[in-house]
Design goal:
By secondary structure, this protein is mainly alpha-helical. The chain is built from 8 helices and no strands. The radius of gyration is 18 Å and the shape is globular. It binds protoporphyrin IX containing FE.
Length: 179
């Protein structure tokens, strides 16, 4: 996990995710708080429309909607340091544990990008402010997705270690050999 949190910091630097992005996202908090419940409803309707996803959320959609709303409020809380990373990592592992296949997380992130941009278009009149807000929104959604993907990848190596009894270093070396 230490390595992955360093990767997170490096990615933030690389994509130029900075204090201005954090401030812009904080500014968007009231908009997304107002529209969050409707967005969350559409998110779970989307999952429920696919048989594989529907089976995973069956019987607990209302509870999941609450956790999704919390996730959404943290997305606009303006604090994206180590604690944010650790919490998003934990959420990633929750999906690994219940067997959500990783490409579905990619797919619903695409859905969230579209929904988020549509909200900005409908509610921010100033084109410059809207464009800057859109860039910050896309960055944080991509960062969240990257953290979840890192957690999935890390879990795969862990499983291989447990299954084979090999050390993590050896497994990493085997993977590197294939290049
Ligand atoms: C970017 C996409 C997603 C976000 C932001 C998201 C958000 C969350 C959050 C915040 C939690 C609560 C985790 C916790 O606090 O322990 C959660 C749990 C869960 N999510 Fe997602 N989710 C996403 C994609 C998906 C997809 C594609 C599925 C497919 C069905 C799914 C199904 C679930 C399930 C079943 C749980 C409960 C996990 C458990 O029992 O521990 N999620 N999700």
């Amino acid at each position: 996990m230490t390595d992955s949190s360093e990767v997170y910091a490096a990615i933030c630097r690389f994509i130029g995710f900075d204090a201005d992005d954090a401030a812009r996202l904080r500014d968007l908090a009231p908009l997304f708080a107002a529209h969050g419940p409707a967005l969350t409803d559409r998110f779970y309707a989307k999952l429920a429309a696919d048989p594989e996803q529907a089976a995973l959320i069956a019987g607990r959609v209302d509870a999941l909607k609450q956790t999704h709303l919390r996730w959404l409020s943290e997305l606009f809380a303006g604090d994206y340091g180590e604690r944010y990373f650790a919490e998003r990592w934990r959420i990633g592992l929750a999906h690994v544990r219940v067997g959500v296949r990783p490409w579905w997380v990619e797919a619903v992130t695409s859905f969230l990008r579209g929904e988020g941009l549509a909200l900005l278009e409908a509610n921010l009149d100033d084109p410059e402010r809207r464009a800057a807000a859109a860039r910050s929104l896309l960055k944080i959604l991509d960062l969240d997705l990257m953290i979840i993907n890192l957690a999935y990848a890390d879990d795969r190596v862990d499983r291989l270690c447990r299954f084979t009894g090999m050390s993590r270093k050896l497994i990493e070396r085997c993977i590197a050999q294939g290049r």
